[in-house]
Amino acid sequence: AQTVTQSQPEMSVQEAETVTLSCTYDTSENNYYLFWYKQPPSRQMILVIRQEAYKQQNATENRFSVNFQKAAKSFSLKISDSQLGDTAMYFCAFMKRGFNNAGNMLTFGGGTRLMVKP
Amino acid sequence: GAGVSQSPRYKVAKRGQDVALRCDPISGHVSLFWYQQALGQGPEFLTYFQNEAQLDKSGLPSDRFFAERPEGSVSTLKIQRTQQEDSAVYLCASSLGGTSSSYNSPLHFGNGTRLTVT
User: Across all residues in chain B, what is the average pLDDT?
Assistant: First the structure.
């Protein structure tokens, strides 16, 4: 079984500054995917960024980037130039990669509440 | 609309009542997942469908929980004899799935149903 741990229940950052959210995971799998999801008050989970475990290069999506350390089983999210609209819950998630990827479910961490202050 | 639609958005039930939660996935999406999200926690997997087949129901917490997707599109999650510990947000997600990698056909989540059992 996989576990995902987010050790920061809450974080705050000033608008336009940079913030890093932490995530660690535990698994015996070698092939897997990692994700960061954003959940605003509307409750809809929105994919922010994703990483394939076999890729050494860290994923980047505009202002969002990750620091993936496979040996340490760490997957942190960096948000640059924070905007008020980034205020939300952020969840780190793990998905193992099997022969048939279609049915593999996500294992989520407990979440980090991020508040961007004006 | 083009997204995953869930209804009702809010449901209040008295302990012991039965409830039915509906999910309309994106048209053509093969894979459908149900997750349960307790207050202040990350979502937890309940069950997975590929078309009309329920391939994984390992996350259902008890035999009071039942899910179906009879025609491979709309899905219903039913909870019988609700208990207070069933209070949570129930999230539905769909993806193209099938033979497509879940990594390349990411999950699309609905806005969830918030169930409160009094």
Answer: 92
